[in-house]
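Researcher: Structure for this, please.
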Amino acid sequence: MIEISELNFQQADFWPMLSELLAWEGVSDAAITDTVRNILADVKQRGDQAVVEYSQRFDRVKATAMAELEIPLERAAAALELYLLHNVRRWKKLQNVYVSTMNTRNRNPGIT
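Model: Predicted structure, token format:
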């Protein structure tokens, strides 16, 4: 499973952590680009079998056929619903912080 990092902008180390996550562009080079091109060409040529093999290799799944990689619609819908709910709640928190900050600035114009 892919590890997803969640950053909190209120943490003291937010900016260094964000910079570290975005730094992958600095290590992206011709070898990586060539590898991706080769994988895409292989998938274009061999189709589903290549996708299954790369899924086994990179995602460590035990699938032997493309059908095993497909996510049932109900499961995808449930995951999307949880994702959206999580992000709506997160957005609400950010909105509250923003409104609170703006209210503080409006009451105390010298505070930035």
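Researcher: Any notable elements?
Model: The chain has a mean pLDDT of 84. The chain has five helices and no strands.
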